[in-house]
Amino acid sequence: MAHKLHDMQMECVRKFVCCFMKPEHIPTNLQKLTIDSITDTSSHLPHKHIYIGYSKIKAPSKFMDKVLQGYMSAAQIMLKKLPTHNSTLVAFSAMDPDLTNDSVVMSNLEILGKKLDHFLTAEEKGPYKDEVRAYVNDKTLPPANDRVDKWWAQESVSSKYPILSKVTLAAFTVFHGPLVESAFSEMSRIINKQTNRMSVQMLNAYQTIKYELKASNSSALEFFRRKKTLKQTPSTPSYAGT
For labelling alongside 90, which of 63, 79, 139, 236 has CA 20 to 30 A away? Predict the structure, then answer.
C-alpha cells in the first residue's frame, strides 16, 4: 500500500547496490547515497565478490570490469529515476502504526496534513496537529494485525483521532501499481469514436463495476443476481356462498 512505497524503493536500491559495493560504504540512510559514492572505486567489492550469479568458472577480469560498469550505470539511473527523496512518499510512510513514538513520524504526519489540507476544513487544521502529537505518544493503540487502512478505519482509532484518520484514509486512496496502466487500457476500450461524449460520471461507473467484478471474481450475472426477486402474492380469499 501507499505507506510502503518509500520503504520498498529503499529496499530495492539497497539490494541492488550491495551486489557490487562494500557494505561499509552503503549508508544506513540511502537518501545519502550519491553518484560519487557509487562510482568511487574504493567502495567497490573485489571482482571475485561482485555478484554475477552462481558459476564454477572464474570470470575473466575484463568481463568483470564490464559487469561493474553495468552495475554503476544502472545504480546511477536508479538514483535519478526513483523518487527516493519524494517528501510525499516519506510522509506516507509515517502512516504505519508500528512507527509511533518517534519525532520524525510526528514531523512527517504534519507534512502529510499540509499536503492533504484540502481534505480538512478551516476548523480542523488546528486540531489536526494536536491529534498528531497525541497519536505519536499514545501507548494504548491496538496492534496492526490487519490491513493498515482498515486499522485506521476501525472505531477504536477513528473515533479517538477523527481528523488524523480522515487524512490518512484519504492518503490510502492514492492509486499506484500496475493497475494504473491497466486503468488506461480499460479506458481506451470504453472511450472510442462512438462514445467520446461520455461523461466522467458514466466512465467512473463503468470502471467501478469492472473492478468490483474483478475483485469478486464473478460474472455480471452472478454478481447482480438477486434471490427471490418476485414475491409470491397471497391467493384471493374465497367467500362462502359465492
Answer: 139
